[in-house]
Design a protein that fits this description.
about 35% strand, 10 Kd Chaperonin, Protein Cpn10, Chain O, chaperone, GroES-like_sf, about 110 residues, protein-folding chaperone binding, Chaperonin_GroES_sf, seven-stranded antiparallel β-sheet, mainly beta
Amino acid sequence: MSSNPTHDKLPIRMLHDRILVRADGEGGERRSSGGIVIPATAQVGRRLDWAEVVAVGQNVRTVEVGDRVLYDPEDRAEVEVRGVAYVLMRERDLHAVAAERLQGSDDSTGLYL
């Protein structure tokens, strides 16, 4: 469960296979592993983003609130709730899930791709 009170009690009930996430960061500058600053305007291949799941519909099977998920920022719908921007998507639009609850499994790395 998320510890941020902003989205602990969202006034929303997700339907079917829908997932509501909050993106980890903006699409601004980032740094390479070597410390080189990469400007937001730099042309790169199709880049996926990470986000935290804040709400799930009753038919969602693979993720839970609090999980981090990998998604394509070009295939998304944005919504604002109480002044906070969220991304709405279907479960099938996710590319991977990372969660602490997956680390205890013997046959799992904790990240599904």
